[in-house]
Write a structure and sequence with these properties.
Helix content is 27%, strand content 25%. The protein is an alpha/beta fold. The protein is globular. The termini are far apart. The structure holds ligand LLP. The site of ligand LLP has 22 residues, from helix 10 and helix 11.
Length: 428
């Protein structure tokens, strides 16, 4: 469910017309709906009502400070994977006690900063990282709460590039060495073993892989307790998929938070642990769109190209994962509208700069506005300035108001970090 809908033939973001945002801010532009973010945060957290649970928003999905502040005000914590994300979470007012620090390659400097911020948990991904964390914690005279991320060897996820839970993936410690890793870590100074962490992939649209992984984790919790460890938390990661085509039921549509929660209750309640979740896409994905304008309609030999002002540098998901994003015109098509098949492409000089192939759309004209839907997660955060294109601005809508929560950089800002070497000719 989201708050982007047609009224009187026009697409609205909550109570603001998308056309008025495009007019005021220019295109391409990301538009987020605060009401949708709040709704998703509430639905997810309500599903676990009565359990000791922390929903830590996965900041990598959308790290805009205003988005984080909205989610923090709904009681969400943060799952961060870098010192930068940790700074963002703290800047958005999320206390360390509601932050978990994940990621395979944390540096000493990041570990130190996270210890100083009193993060609630380090999701440690290797024994070497545990040793580094111990060393840094001891040097600061602090203690680090640790969960190992275990790799359950379960295949899951919408695309090979976003599956993380298989034995061949770089994530987590090998299942077969989990008990010995815990035993060794427990003897390290400055480390407090507190739990077990797992995350198997993203855009998962069925419950079965979650069930397989979570049952394995429940078994491991039993083993670790037998070994004498205090396992008081389990972090079940993120990964719950969303609908990218607007359908809420049928083949390929993801389970709702209610079904996901019911599964987790059945497995985790007997363990008597605090539960941590790291949802990203499920919270932010359908809370954002990317508004873009048609520059040219070009008739090729075999296909019709709709060349738009957004490109793969703004939203890389179709190019990188063959991801499907629904495309909707900002002005609703009239009942008599004729339809055509378009390849929707951007201006970047790459063949992979294509949002859709042979997509059936109402006849489009140059200057028309439309929306790439479900772009609130892994959209703006994965943008680059390839082709020296400025990062698309981000707008947050709340009711009838909107605000530019990140503006478009100027060309001067884009080149400001560059400097000429002293030996280069400085003439001109
Ligand atoms: N926790 C960890 C440790 C993760 O690695 C991820 C996502 C999440 C939580 C959040 O997963 P979510 O609930 O959003 O599925 N860029 C890709 C997705 C990459 C996901 C990376 N990890 C895409 O655009 O589909």
């Amino acid at each position: 469910m989201h708050h982007f809908s047609y009224r009187n033939g026009e697409m609205f973001a909550e109570d603001v017309t998308c056309a008025s945002i495009a007019e005021a801010v220019g295109t391409p532009v990301y538009v987020y709906s605060e009401a949708t973010l709040r709704r998703h945060a509430r639905v997810f957290q309500d599903a676990f009502a009565g359990l000791d649970a922390l929903a830590a928003f996965s900041v990598k999905a959308n790290s805009n400070l205003s988005v984080l502040r909205v989610l923090a005000s709904e009681g969400m914590g943060a799952d961060v994977v870098s010192g930068g994300e940790l700074k963002r979470a703290r800047a958005a007012g999320i206390p360390g006690s509601r932050i978990v620090f994940s990621g395979v390659g944390k540096t000493d400097a990041e570990l130190q900063f996270a210890l100083e911020q009193d993060v609630s948990q380090f999701n440690v991904e290797s024994e070497n990282e545990a040793a580094a964390l111990s060393r840094v914690a001891v040097s600061l005279g602090r203690r680090a709460p640790v969960a190992f991320r275990v790799n359950p060897d379960v295949a899951a996820g919408g695309h090979a590039k976003i599956s993380t839970g298989k034995a061949e993936d770089k994530f987590g410690i090998a299942w077969s060495s989990a008990r010995s890793a815990y035993a060794r870590a427990a003897s390290l100074d400055g480390i407090d073993i507190v739990g077990v962490d797992v995350h198997i992939g993203s855009q998962i649209t069925e419950l079965a892989p979650f069930e397989r992984a979570f049952r394995k984790v429940a078994g491991l919790v039993g083993d670790l307790r037998t070994d004498g460890h205090t396992i008081e938390r389990i972090d079940l990661g993120g990964g719950l998929g969303i609908s990218y085509d607007g359908r809420s039921e049928g083949e390929g549509t993801p389970p709702g938070p209610g079904d996901y929660a019911a599964l987790i209750r059945a497995i985790a309640e007997p363990l008597n642990v605090r539960l941590i979740f790291e949802p990203g896409r499920m919270i932010a994905g359908n809370a954002g769109i990317l508004l873009t304008r048609a520059i040219y309609v070009k008739q090729g030999e075999e296909r019709t190209f709709l060349i738009v002002d957004a490109a793969m540098n703004d939203l890389i998901r179709p190019a990188l994962y063959d991801a499907f994003h629904d495309i909707k015109p900002v002005r609703a098509p009239s009942p008599e509208a004729r339809y055509g098949q378009y390849d929707v492409v951007g201006p970047v000089c790459e063949t992979s700069d294509r949002f859709a192939k042979a997509r059936e759309l109402p006849e489009m004209a140059e200057g028309d506005l439309f929306a790439l839907m479900s772009a609130g997660a892994y959209g703006a955060v994965q943008a680059s300035q390839y082709n020296t294109r400025p990062l698309a601005p981000e707008v947050l809508v709340s009711g009838g108001a909107f605000h530019v929560v990140r503006r478009r950089p100027t060309f001067e800002e884009m080149i400001a970090l560059e400097s000429a070497p002293p030996w280069s000719a400085t003439s001109g």
